[in-house]
Amino acid sequence: MADRLATSTARSDALFSEAQELLPGGVDSPVRAFRAVGGTPRFIARGKGSAVWDVDGNRYIDYLASWGPLIAGHAHPGVVAAIQDAATRGTSYGAPTESELDLARLVRQAFPSIDLVRFVSSGTEATMTALRLARAFTSRDVILKFDGGYHGHADDLLVQAGSGPLTFGQPDSRGVPAASAAQTLSVPYNDLTALRDAFQAHPGQIAAVIVEPVAGNMGVVPPESGFLEHLRQMTRDEGTVLIFDEVITGFRVALGGAQARFRVTPDLTCLGKIVGGGLPVGAYGGRREIMQQVSPLGPVYQAGTLSGNPLAMAAGAATLRLLTEPGVYDHLERLSGRLVDGLGEAARAAGVAYVGNRVGSMFTGYFAAQPVTDYVTAKQSDTRRYARFFHAMLERGVYLAPSQFEAGFVSLAHSEGDIDETLNAAAFALAEATLSD
Asked: Up-side HSE of residue 335: CA atoms within 13 Å toward CB?
């Protein structure tokens, strides 16, 4: 591979300039704007397999994977065919379809904790409704989340920690009423003592604990040994609903998500991303007695015009069937392990402080000198060095997340050659990332 790829971004630059006159910040989701790393975002023209091409014709090995959904890679023939077939019959009906049942069966087969499932159009809808459902089921109002965990942009969840683990949160976004945050607690991830203290300070008040069983929105942070097991026991003892937000981890770290990988069973599960095969979708499901509270069976209202959209159902079902094929997850583990181990070795060779966290095929490389186990240690990473590394990799044809605090993803479309090319690029990029030290 060449020391540096010759690239032009003239068309992306022009489109981004125009986009800023049409869209807030030029984007439809904030992190796409490259604010965390600087520079101009690439406008993508197409994707195929493990790669994407921008509007200037530059090719990139893609570890963004649309932020996780594309576990089969871009434009997988089976997934594309399923979408095309569904589209020939119509794109939306506002009425039940057999395809909803097809995908629901596949979800239940993979997630034994889910007795009933409801499809929605986004992960935010799923988590928002799961919390409403938990509050109705327990007749309590307080919810508890973990610092650095992201569960969508519903008002109750845009909360940062207060002055300590026993205080209620403060809004983390303008436009969120203080009253919406006033019933949300936030404690450090992987900290059982803080969790226990919160329960003791609010006895009989906490309706739900919502957690990413593998944190993915402060970068990838695995649960420490015993954390999820003790969380399950504490919530059970307190009569609190345990919600696993598996929007990222569902079908990503195992066919049955993190709950299968770590053998911990939640009361409710939220899904998204992979379950829709790259189309907009979300889902929540769990214990029958809780899910029976959802309208039209029960008093908890939730509706959506495009819920169960037939195109998303078809794409999701096609993707999940691919994931049941023998050896799929072994392949993902092997490639992902080789990538993360290789990046760590390259960093050591360059004399760069680096921590590679990985669970299954999701990973984050932190420019940090100490293990990253929670939000506080993640925030100690060198974000300026990450920005230099990101751009050096981009120039060499490797597309990583444009933020230190996001996950990367390996897909079934990635090859050993892709890993070789990535690690070769990293050797140059890590050296370049040290130049300003």
From this structure: 25
